[in-house]
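User: Structure tokens for both sequences below?

Assistant:
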Amino acid sequence: MTETAYGGIEIFFTYTPSDLLSIFLVTNIMGLPSFANSEDEVVRAVSVKISSRTDVSGKIFVVVSTYLASTEIDKSDYPRDFEEYSVFNVRVFLFNDRISVYINSKWVYSYCLGAVSYPDVITQSLNPVGDGVTVTNVRVVELCDGREAVYVDYESTSDNAISSIIQERPIEVLSAVGRAAEFTYGYTKNNVGAQKIDSYDESEADNSQMSSDGLVYARDVSISIDTYIAEHFGLITRLYRLPDIDNGIARAIKAIQRKARQSIYHVDTAGRLDPRLEVADVHVFDNVIVTGTGRVINVNNIIEDIGITISDGVYRQTTKGRREIS
């Protein structure tokens, strides 16, 4: 087993419990049971089952099980002494080799895998079992962190405080409604077709973060390959120092390399106002003819900045962005 022990997912959801209902959280994270002999065992996909039961005295219990593929490897129940709650507000947290479940902000279950391997792209799904199950308020936390609190010096600047929270992850900060800020590895919003473009300018520049072979210095020493850079620019080796990241190292490196190869291509456009566009949208050029030059453009660009000017009844819009390269 090739063990990638540092990763995590954090999922929140709400549902109304019943002894006849259960919720399976199914992932593509691969694991072994506790105390397993890694040479003899076969890794299988990790799942978590959440349900409830009522004993003969009427006492209600939260029941949580850990599965590897279809095999139940651990099961535990917890007396539900919070009877005033008619719903379960569930938090499931997989962090490195540990699994924890919270119900209505109370810890109810933990399990430690014998070994675990996180894929570069983690997938998860909620599968309700039973009639009439309604799952609401589903939320997946992209930047899951095992720390319950982060202590920041009182005199720290906001940038330093944010750096302490996100550690060394390559985070993009986007403006949101209500003066909030959204933090993401590279989330894009909507695909918006380009229209009424008067000028299109694309330039190419080296990015110091790009590499075909990234040497990763973190809790694990590893190599991250970027086949696009290798194919288009040749062999470029770079050392990435990320000693403070304690989970999701492979994902952070992939995000750094993806952002670096996209940022090689800088795109500036100008044209009529398009109120549909927002920062982090993908500006889709599908056989779009640039009015000023007659060029036909077929690319996708990620919007990083938008400017709007109004003069003598004419509304103009400029955008800056980078090429979308998966």
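Moving on to the next sequence.
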Amino acid sequence: MNDNGWQPIETAPEDTLVVVGWLDDEDPETPERHDFDWKEDGCWQRHDADVEFAHEVAPPGSKMPKERPPYTHWIALPPIPRST
């Protein structure tokens, strides 16, 4: 594990919502990207749903999400604090 908690995407757990991160090559000024996703049966569910939706509704010639998730790292979500 890195000192900052980010781990290689290959080590992400199954069936657990995590924060995923990557650097966007197309935005050199602010390349950091973050999202929430979970892996089920080896597939990133939110990313796959976004790709499927884009193919259903995007007009021809639209910029489409990549078929493979761009994620390179993940970090666990901390538990939500209980109110007192």
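User: Anything stand out in the second?

Assistant: The chain has a mean pLDDT of 93.
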